[in-house]
Amino acid sequence: MRLIIILFVFFNIHFLYAQENYNLNKTFRIIRKFDNLLSSDNKEYVFYIDASYLFSPEGKSIYSNNIYMAKKALENNSNDIVYSGVIKSSTPPENYVYLLLHKRLYDYISKNKSSYIDELMQTDLQTFYDNIREYIIKEEIYTGNFKYIRFLTKTKYKYYTGKD
Length: 164
Fold this sequence. Notes:
By secondary structure, the chain is an alpha+beta fold. The chain is 56% helix and 20% strand. Helix 4 crosses helix 6 and helix 5 (114-123) packs across helix 6 (125-139).
């Protein structure tokens, strides 16, 4: 029994650490629920988004260097909690794209009052979504480009992911 456990751990140890070389030349698609987005007067909003992201050449090197430096820091036992968090939140690249999108959504929503957001959502939802989309695409120029950002209904989100 001990031998089986030892063999199991030995052959699966590489799954405990982030993969070394992700293919960053492909387009990454995420379909996620973005909740806990607070307006400037602390009203919570939830969005369901389908987005596609492509790393730029500079973005590929930035992403790879960040992961490499975090792994090196972990090997040197310096600030384990911080660097293991960096690796966990940034790998696979889909998580990194999710964090980018979440930050931009949070920035946009937190700048506005709920009365303004609610009014736009009730009267001109498409313009509201277009404004968010433009803001995200304009702000995210450092590591790549969003090819598309689609806002989904809760029903479509559940259809695509099987989650509530």
